[in-house]
Amino acid sequence: MQEFTVGKNDAGQRLDRWLSKTLPLLPPALAQKYIRLKRVKLNGKGAKRDARLAQGDLLQLYINDEFFDAPAPENAFLSVFKPQLDILYEDEDILLVNKRPGIVVHPDEHEYVNTLITHIQAYLYQKKEWDPRRENSFTPALCNRIDRNTGGIVIAAKTAEALRVMNQKIKDREIEKYYLCAVHGRMDPPQGKLEGFISKDEVKKQVTVHRSPVPGGRTAVTLYRTLAVKGGLSLIECELVTGRTHQIRAQFAAAGHPLLGDGKYGRSRADRRYDRRYQALWSYKLVFSFTTPAGGLERLNGRSWQVDDVDFVAEYFGREMGDIIP
Predict the structure, then answer these.
(1) If we measure between CA atoms, which residue out of 180, 274, 267 comes closest to residue 228?
(2) What is the spatial distance between Cα 161 and Cα 140, in angstroms, rounded to a whole number?
(3) Which of helix, strand or coil describes residue 251?
(4) How far apart (Å, rounded) are the C-alpha atoms in residues 324 and 304?
(5) Angstrom distance (rounded) from CA 224 to CA 37
(6) Which DSSP state fits 100?
(7) Cβ count within 10 A of residue 311
(8) Would you give the distance in Å from CA 250 to the centre of its chain?
(9) What sign results for the dihedral spanned by CA atoms 242, 247, 249, 254?
(10) Is 12 exposed, middle or buried (CB count within 10 Å of its CB: 0-12, 13-18, 19+)?
(11) What residues have CB less than 8 Å from 104, skipping those under 6 apart?
């Protein structure tokens, strides 16, 4: 028999889901059977699989030892990895990180180590704010993601409660997201709305914009305004009303004004004169506009953060961020 005390980051979970995360080697069907047979006791008594755990609850697991994945004495990798983060804001619940272009947010088929989440987890581990040996199921996680070749603000949750709240706020569109991009040509009108339907090709990892609804298509809405025009390029501020894959890149390309440096949806011939490595797109501002309760994150309501510098603003428009955006 092994005992676990429910910590802050495991509170609120269903018993069966906590069990599946804590004992990943235990087959789901067998886990349900053990719960029915009361071989999983909650505060000394049998419990139903959908029982909600509370901080301080005692769980006693009468389960064979081979199903317990005992962690190593210390995670050597997290100790020696050198995190590099541009942190805009940090408190006990969240991190706001300005991701540089070229780094992926999560491991993929091309990169397993040098990812944004790895940098964040190593940073918190070395600060002694997170220890995988003491957490039964929670791992610091990202609440939003942006493309490898896009820069900008990513929200990371340091606690399970923050992750749940932030994910819900994003789903309910209570977090406003603003981007800066450089596009070819001049938008007409200079301020307006791009609307359409986006379908995704999973094989090509590319999307298509349609004017009318199509099977599998999802509504895509982007508000935009022109901030500057120079040398055949326009600097555009975009506000995402919806958040679809490649939404800004695909919609501006479909409107005849692809992003500078966009190898997937752009104009490679027109881009050559600029010799840009990444698409000119940056998630530069977040505004927390909560209209429903936010629990422990209520203190963030009404606050906003934006990055101080976006490389293509000065490079192609000859102006500083503060001269364009107060």
Answers:
(1) 180
(2) 11
(3) helix
(4) 17
(5) 59
(6) P
(7) 14
(8) 20
(9) negative
(10) middle
(11) 110, 111, 115, 116, 148
Tell me how far apart the alpha carbons of residues 63 and 160 are, in angstroms, rounded to a whole number: 26
Partners of 154 in the beta sheet? 97
- Looking at the chain, how many residues does it have? 326
Contact 307, 177 (CB under 8 A): no
Identity of the amino acid at 39? R
- pLDDT tens per residue, the chain (326 residues)? 889 999 988 899 999 989 988 887 777 778 888 999 999 999 999 999 999 999 999 999 999 877 775 545 456 678 878 999 999 999 999 999 999 999 999 988 778 788 999 999 999 999 988 887 766 668 899 999 999 999 999 999 999 999 999 999 999 999 999 999 999 999 999 999 999 999 999 888 899 999 999 999 999 999 999 999 999 999 999 999 999 999 999 999 999 999 999 999 998 888 988 888 899 999 999 999 999 999 999 999 999 999 999 999 999 998 888 888 87
- In this prediction the pTM is 0.78
